[in-house]
Amino acid sequence: MSSKRYKNLPEKTRDLQSESVDKLIPILKKNCTTKFDESLDLNFQINKQKKSEINIRTVINLPGGSSKKVKIGVVCEDNKSQEAKDAGAEVVGGDELIEEIKAGNINFEKLICTPGMMIKLSKLGKVLGPKGLMPNPKLGSVTNDVKKAITDAKSGQVEIRNDKDGNIGLSIGNKSFSDDKLILNFNAVLDALEKEKSNNTIKGDLIKQAFITSTMGVSYKIKLGKSI
To answer: Both 41 and 88 in a single domain?
Structure first.
């Protein structure tokens, strides 16, 4: 059963003509009628390709920041432990942390690993892989510069990754963000997707449809293209 609040929201918005993000953001904010600071979320549907061709995975630093607080785990050598803790990592360790992970004790949302420890950690692919937690050099999470990796992860870095059906979902911020910051973040996402298109053998347009919604709101179709 829908709540009274939800029933008061506009109906059949997905059937409306697409609009640019800068016009949709004020409408979305007006629809954020809950007591908490709702997030504004994007959903992209990739044009139908052979499933083997759909392999988009990258990270970007949102220029307008991110409201999401991420708990960081770092697997590193002893001489890197203090650096990781000082940078803000909540869970830091070497062989003992690897054993904890092996046992299924995963108390973090993102994992960073030094190259020297990756040989040991890579054996836990069956544990970390399905959760999307395996560190990856391409994503900057296998590195000796643990301070930078932690700082990036905590200051607005988000992962862009498609699922098996070619859908990509991510947040560009919260209702409390200024419109300008949300637009900056949206444009940064489009830039990242365009770059990923060139890195993959995808013919034609990458995105079939794009929608934006708030956490407890309704979705609207986006007219693709950068907003000013």
So the answer is: no
The pair of structure tokens assigned to 64 is 């307008």
Of the three residues 112, 135, 154, the one that is the final residue of a domain is 154
Distance of alpha carbon 21 from alpha carbon 29, whole angstroms: 12
Tokens encoding 203: 């013919």
Q: How many domains does the chain have?
A: 2
- In a domain, residue 150? The reply is yes
The answer to whether residue 146 is domain-embedded is yes
| CATH label of the domain that carries residue 28 | 3.30.190.20
How far apart (Å, rounded) are the C-alpha atoms in residues 194 and 59? 13
Residues in Cβ contact with 56 at an 8 Å cutoff, skipping those fewer than 6 apart: 46, 160, 161, 162, 168, 193, 196, 200
Domain boundary among 126, 154, 182: 154
Kindly list the strands in the beta sheet with 91-93, ordered across the sheet, starting from the edge strand earlier in the chain: 91-93, 72-75, 110-113
Domain that holds residue 211: 17-66+157-221
Q: How many residues appear in the chain? A: 228
Signed CA dihedral, 197, 113, 117, 146: sign only: positive
Q: Which residues contact 201 (CB under 8 A, 6 or more apart)?
A: 53
pLDDT tens-digit map of 182-224: 999 999 999 999 888 777 666 678 888 999 999 998 899 999 8
Is this model's pTM higher than 0.90 or not?
no
- Torsion angles phi and psi, residue 211, rounded to 5: -130, 155
Distance (Å, whole) CA 119 – CA 217: 45
